[in-house]
Amino acid sequence: MSTASAPVEIGHVALTVNDLPGMTKFYQSALGLDTLSSDAVTARLGAGDKTLVELRADPAARRAGRREAGLFHTAFLMPDRKSLARWLIHAAESRLPLQGASDHLVSEAIYLADPEGNGIEVYVDRPRMAWYDANGSIKMDTLGLDLNDLASAADGPWTGAPEGEVVGHVHLQVGNVTRAEEFYRDVLGFAVATHYPGASFLGSGGYHHHIGANIWNSREAGQRNFPVTGLTELVLRADAPTLAAIAARAGGTTIADPWGTPVTLLAKGA
């Protein structure tokens, strides 16, 4: 239950925030992330020695609107189901305001948002053999999740983000799904795994998705107007051959998607 075998995977997300101390505290207490480094303007938080979220302070940045292009949610992938179960019990005991819970067939997912409105998913994958239909295509759906059954898998108390937790995928609000596919598929090399109405899901190495792109709130959204809170940079990590191929297509390793969000590619292990 990892994305590490994929040629390209999510490294971390960088978020512009108005309240750096408050947002740092949220990601520590709600998600159990460790502060790996911090100063007056930046905090890097993660699991083990791996950065998952970088918070960049800008008290004057305007708050992102609901219908703008940008972040839909950052999805934190747990290494196993018992870890998600422990976190669920922690969320209940902490009275975190959850926004939903879904069985996506490929995964079990729980949704919430941080204090500045950035969406968050905490999830675990089902075994890969369960992802496919009879034709070998990835099958996804949005069904109700049995939270009591999930909680029963907990094998102890929550003690913080477990080693092996990663950002499994990032789901974006975009202005046009076709344009999103042209960038994330044709430039960055992700394969389209499946579609929902108004959304595309793209993955690398057979993963069900590293990138989601939807127009549910943001149809025809234009260029992002920075500085603004929310997703400031998406950092991807790629193996050496894939990184070289993307850089050749894109003209470099720091590029922007069609709505202006910077995407940075780094080598795996760097």
Q: What brief labels describe this structure?
A:
2,3-Dihydroxybiphenyl 1,2-Dioxygenase, domain 1, 18% helix, 16 strands, alpha+beta, 270 residues, 9-stranded mixed beta sheet
The CATH topology is 2,3-Dihydroxybiphenyl 1,2-Dioxygenase, domain 1
Number of domains: 1
Q: Which superfamily, in CATH terms, is the homologous superfamily?
A: 2,3-Dihydroxybiphenyl 1,2-Dioxygenase, domain 1
Unreliable stretches (pLDDT < 50, length at least 5) are: none
CATH first level: Alpha Beta
Give the averaged pLDDT, no decimals.
96
- What is the succession of H and E elements? EHEEEEHEEEEHEHEEEEHEE
As a percent range, the share of helical residues equals 10-25%
Strand count, sense and barrel status of the largest sheet are: 9 strands, mixed
**Alpha carbon gyration radius:** 18 Å
- What is the number of helices? 5
State the end-to-end CA separation.
22 Å
Structural class: alpha+beta
Quote the beta fraction. 35-45%
Strand line-up across the major sheet: 9-6-7-8-5-10-13-12-11
CATH architecture: Roll
Q: What is the strand tally?
A: 16
| Spatial shape | globular
